[in-house]
């Protein structure tokens, strides 16, 4: 019995040894399985047979490594698509004698965020989730990170399996069907030629053989063309690669926009992204930049400066439509309305071109000036606005950091209530409304006074030779019922003093004087005292002194609210500059 047991153990040991995978075993079949998206586990690795052991051994001796063609690699545990090598063509595995272990090691070295970890092991973070502290992912909550990983995984699989654009697949199938129909027609013609020539049987066989060969060749070329044309790993949106495994710094920022727009519901965000791509293709949005609209819309919108967070600021002027000629030219016909809409989309595309997805600064601040805007009776304007808002909301998610409406008339609040049901809650949460008397105060919450145009109560002027946005303004406070003075020194004779000043809310008494240092000299009135209301623009003035002294600005606040005064000044000395 003891001898039989020893003999049985020896056979068992021999059987286990014989089942161990050999170096470079089943390399071709593993590569083929990976190409087909198969799940590679211990069972089917051991079950595969070696086809050309001698060739593989020679490769090991020459190169010391196994090269497995992959496309795309898959997670051996769950079959999820994972990131391949940088070229996307070959995965080089060290020949350590165990193919399965080689695959494990390659997955670890790739560090893909989409590879699932076995139970009991800690999941590795995506490289994009391990950015510096000021990056996108340093401030994400866990559910946001999970949603982003999920969308990356779905998108990667969709691109690499040609499922992002369904229409292209259908077109390719139609082409293949057309080729098959043509082949059938040729077959019928061959039969007729055979009957007419008297050698019916031979021609029939030759015709069938010719058609079959042609048909198979067409099918092979069709499949080859489908793979070459439809598998587009370089697909981009707004200049950002959509294939997560390419490692584009802006990919996560772009995908995060769609997630935020759909409240981090991965499938909804993916559907929104697909619909956006289909809409862009159907409306030729990628080439809309090249369309020429002349300068007829220039007065309706322009870009100017940055907000406090670094977002580009876009001003939209709706008051131009108060002019009947402009209104009729823009909205008078269906063609003119469509032209205006395409111009508006072109403007959005141009604005996006100036954004940077890699540093998180990928949204705009919109200022909508409703001063003198035509009332709700202008139906065409109302419908065009509604349509434009819908298109921008569905296809440009999270590109507006804040939507500020200034100089809002009372009737617009009723119009906004009618429009509100068609907007998402997140879109509505970005709206800010300001009455005419509160414009500067509202804008100042989001934009520095140096960046706000003068007609909105700021200090920014077109082509200003004296000041730039780098010239920081000072601030003073005038309490209710109090009087404050601001002094600008002029110690040198011949100095030219320049100053900018704005008061938030205005409705104050204001005057400017030059007070000489010499007590025996007379005070010079630079600007007579008068009451200034909120409808006036910022003040700029200059004064050239003939003796040392100072400019004294007096502000008297006679109402119950305190006032904020923002000002800046410069002193120019011609003699100093000439020397």
What does this structure look like?
This protein is of the alpha+beta class and 579 residues long. Helices cover 41% and strands 18% of the residues. It contains 17 helices and 17 strands. It has helices at residues 2-19, 27-35, 42-47, 53-63, 99-110, 142-160, 166-197, 200-230, 251-261, 266-282, 324-331, 334-353, 379-395, 410-419, 425-428, 439-444, 574-578; strands at residues 65-69, 90-94, 236-237, 240-241, 301-306, 312-317, 364-369, 400-406, 431-433, 474-478, 483-490, 496-504, 508-516, 524-532, 539-544, 549-556, 563-572. It has a five-stranded mixed sheet. β3 (236-237) and β4 (240-241) form a beta hairpin. The longest helix has 32 residues, at 166-197.
Descriptive labels:
579 residues; 4-stranded antiparallel sheet; 18% strand; 5-stranded mixed sheet; alpha+beta; 17 helices; single chain
List how many beta strands DSSP finds: 17
Report the oligomer: single chain
Q: Helix fraction?
A: 40-55%
Task: Give the N-to-C terminal Cα separation.
Answer: 117 Å
Biggest sheet architecture: 5 strands, mixed
Radius of gyration: 36 Å
């Amino acid at each position: 019995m003891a001898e039989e047991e020893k003999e049985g153990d020896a056979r068992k040991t021999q059987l286990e040894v014989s089942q161990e995978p050999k170096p470079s075993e089943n390399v071709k079949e593993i590569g083929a399985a990976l190409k087909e998206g198969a799940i590679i586990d211990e069972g089917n690795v051991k079950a595969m047979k070696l086809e050309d052991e001698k060739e593989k051994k020679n490769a090991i001796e020459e190169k010391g490594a196994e090269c497995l063609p992959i496309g795309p690699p898959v997670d051996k545990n769950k079959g999820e698509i994972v990131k391949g090598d940088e070229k996307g063509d070959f995965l080089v595995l060290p020949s350590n004698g165990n193919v399965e272990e080689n695959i494990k090691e390659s997955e670890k070295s790739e560090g893909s965020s989409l590879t699932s970890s076995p139970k009991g092991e800690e999941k590795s973070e995506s490289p994009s989730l391990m950015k510096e502290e000021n990056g996108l992912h340093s401030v994400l909550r866990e559910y946001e990170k999970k949603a982003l990983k999920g969308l990356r995984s779905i998108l990667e699989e969709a691109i690499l399996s040609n499922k992002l654009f369904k229409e292209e697949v259908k077109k390719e199938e139609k082409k293949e069907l057309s080729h098959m129909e043509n082949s059938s027609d040729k077959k019928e013609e061959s039969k007729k030629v055979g009957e007419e020539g008297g050698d019916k049987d031979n021609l029939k066989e030759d015709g069938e053989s010719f058609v079959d060969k042609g048909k198979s060749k067409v099918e092979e070329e069709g499949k080859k063309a489908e793979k070459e044309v439809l598998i587009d790993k370089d697909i981009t949106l707004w200049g950002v690669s959509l294939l997560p495994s390419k490692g584009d710094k802006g990919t996560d920022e772009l995908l995060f926009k769609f997630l935020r727009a759909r409240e981090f519901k991965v499938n909804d965000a993916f559907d929104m992204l697909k619909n956006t791509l289909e809409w862009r293709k159907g409306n030729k949005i990628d080439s809309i930049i090249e369309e020429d609209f002349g300068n007829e819309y220039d007065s309706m919108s322009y870009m100017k400066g940055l907000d406090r967070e670094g977002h580009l600021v876009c001003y939209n002027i709706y008051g131009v439509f108060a002019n009947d000629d402009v209104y009729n030219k823009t909205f008078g016909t269906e063609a003119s309305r469509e032209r205006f809409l395409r111009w508006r989309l072109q403007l959005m595309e141009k604005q996006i071109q100036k954004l940077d997805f890699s540093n998180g600064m990928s949204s705009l601040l919109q200022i909508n000036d409703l001063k003198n805007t035509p009332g709700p009776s202008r139906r065409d304007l109302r419908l065009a606005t509604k349509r434009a808002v819908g298109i921008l909301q569905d296809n440009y998610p999270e590109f507006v950091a804040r939507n500020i409406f200034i100089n809002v008339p009372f009737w617009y609040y009723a119009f906004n209530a009618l429009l509100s049901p068609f907007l998402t809650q997140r879109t509505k949460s970005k709206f800010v409304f300001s009455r005419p008397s509160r414009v500067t105060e509202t804008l100042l919450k989001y934009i520095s006074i140096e960046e706000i145009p003068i007609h909105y109560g700021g200090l920014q002027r077109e082509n200003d030779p004296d000041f730039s946005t780098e010239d920081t303004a000072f601030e003073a406070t005038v309490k209710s019922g109090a009087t404050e003075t601001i002094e600008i020194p002029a110690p040198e004779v011949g100095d030219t003093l320049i100053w900018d000043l704005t008061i938030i809310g205005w409705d104050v008494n204001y005057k400017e004087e030059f007070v000489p240092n010499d007590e025996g000299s007379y005070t010079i009135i630079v600007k007579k005292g008068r009451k200034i209301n909120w409808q006036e623009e910022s003040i700029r003035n200059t004064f050239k002194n003939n003796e040392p002294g100072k400019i004294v600005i007096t502000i008297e606040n006679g109402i119950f609210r305190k006032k904020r005064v923002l000002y800046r000044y410069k002193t120019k000395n011609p003699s100093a500059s000439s020397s």
